[in-house]
Amino acid sequence: MFRFPKLDPSKLDLSAFGVPKFDPRAFEAAAARTSKARGAGDRAARMQDAMARFRRVQEAAAAQWAEARRTMIDRPDAAGHHGPTLDMEAPTAAGGAWTAPDRAGGSEPGPDLSAMMRALRDHLPKAPPAGRGPAVDVPPGARFEERVFAEAAGSRRYKVYVPSGYSGQALPVVVMLHGCTQNPDDFAAGTRMNALAEEQTFLVAYPEQPQSANLQRCWNWFTAGDQVREGGEPALIAGIARAVVAEFSADPGLVYAAGLSAGGAAAAILAATYPDLFAAVGVHSGLACGAARDMPGAFAAMKGQGAAPGRNRRTVPTIVFHGDGDRTVHPVNGDQVAEQAAPAPGLAEAVTRGTSPGGTAYTRTVRSDASGRPLLEQWVLHGTGHAWSGGSPEGSYTDPRGPDASREMIRFFLAQAPARGA
């Protein structure tokens, strides 16, 4: 049988047919280029898959927010809460109150995708600084200055009001935590806390929540990582308080915190996580620590269907203000804040009812120890919505009709001084 010679492709000459001679090295190089191109294509495909997954996460989060809001609108509760709106409508007349918008004409906030924004903030363009809000009057000899605090948990800007009566003495410090969409200037103007600091000579610190941490500048009270000691936002706020004490040689035993709405919830968290630092806290229209652990839970808690919080392991004197007409944060949350802060049973309890000079009826419940020192004080403001009681119309979220929550909080705070100094 005829045997064909062994074929060696490298020795074939196909030039007569217009085919170049086979070159093993050229073949290997071409194969390498093809493999590299295929690898780049694979990476591009993986990137496209990742972006598609990210878009699906965005769409799911937005859908989740929309469904939660639709549910709350379709099934309003007896108190008339129509959703988690925290942006209030401005007064229609001088001296009027800020009110929650109605469903027909009110503005709709966008979904608060704070966790996603925190993950992406390093990759996004920096937003321009927000307006500072209304001008804050600073009397001669006083100062209202901006600082920056930074540590492992992050950084926050804050402002400090130093009264004209400060001359290096160890003063009390009040940390004021603004609500959603607010900033230090707005909160200072609305609460008039600087005027009280000037009158009674104490320091006031106003930490600022940036939009990079929360789209609506809310403190992230509903995030599990921001409800613990030595981590998240509680660590930053506590660090600011300590920084003010150190810079101005303030009294470390006379440090207090107060806040409105999300800021009130943050103040309740400080009582639970830093009872050794804060001698007392004030919670206005806020929520208890642990009322929610995620965004859907926050919507439920604001509607009055949040988890029942347990009592704090260590008692921190607490004063609570909440309007029973609040359609933004259900009034039951004020009761839950009081329950969480409640000291041991057996204390004297006094209930009084009255009407502020501006016409707001209220019920005030005070629980005091044997010496008469108030440990828990709760004000239920009848007919008041989601607004700082007795505040100035120059700031947002205020009801000028009173009673004066700022003055009552300072009275309550300073009443703790003898016990802490003993």
From TrEMBL:
Pfam families xrefs: Esterase_PHB
InterPro entries hit by this protein: AB_hydrolase_fold (IPR029058), Esterase_phb (IPR010126), Plant_Biomass_Hydrol_Est (IPR050955)
Alphabetically ordered keywords of this record: Hydrolase, Signal
SUPFAM superfamilies: alpha/beta-Hydrolases
Region (Disordered): 75-114, 340-365, 385-404
Regions of compositional bias (Low complexity) in chain numbering: 90-101
NCBIfam families: esterase_phb (TIGR01840)
Protein name (database record): PHB depolymerase family esterase
Species annotation: Methylobacterium longum
